[in-house]
């Protein structure tokens, strides 16, 4: 257990950040899941719209530090490729 005043404050701050980051990650996963469900349904227009909504969420997650920048870019790229493959 933390003994010093600053360590106790750091523990509280870490708990607040963890809560915020958990919400951010959950939000990102929800958007990605919606894209994947649209891809599975085979509706290209719906999938493209879901991807348009998911892309800024993924990039915001990278900007806020809950995802690595390359991870977010890779996810967007792979989802976009799958959405484009529907019409092919």
- Kindly estimate the percentage of residues that lie in beta strands according to DSSP: under 5%
Low-confidence stretches: none
Q: Class by helix and strand content?
A: mainly alpha
Q: Please outline the major beta sheet.
A: none
Number of helices: 3
Strand segment count? 0
Measured on Cα atoms, how large is the radius of gyration? 17 Å
Bulk shape: elongated
What is the average per-residue confidence, as pLDDT, rounded to a whole number? 95
H/E element sequence: HHH
Helix amount, in percent? over 70%
For the termini, the CA-CA separation is: 58 Å
SSE layout and pairings?
Blueprint: H1 5-41, H2 44-64, H3 69-87
Describe the structure.
There is one protein chain. The protein is built from three helices and no strands. The protein starts with a helix and ends with a helix. The protein is mostly helical and about 90 residues long.
Could you list some keywords that capture this structure?
88 residues; mainly alpha; 3 helices
Quick structural summary:
The protein has helices at 5-41, 44-64, 69-87. It is mostly helical. The longest helix has 37 residues, at 5-41.
């Amino acid at each position: 257990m933390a003994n010093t005043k600053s360590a106790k404050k750091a523990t509280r701050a870490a708990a607040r950040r963890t809560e915020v980051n958990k919400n951010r990650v959950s939000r990102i996963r929800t958007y990605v899941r919606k894209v994947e469900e649209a891809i599975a349904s085979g509706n290209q227009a719906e999938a493209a719209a879901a991807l348009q909504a998911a892309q800024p969420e993924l990039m915001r997650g990278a900007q806020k530090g809950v995802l690595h920048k390359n991870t977010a870019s890779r996810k967007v790229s792979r989802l976009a490729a799958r959405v484009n493959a529907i019409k092919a």
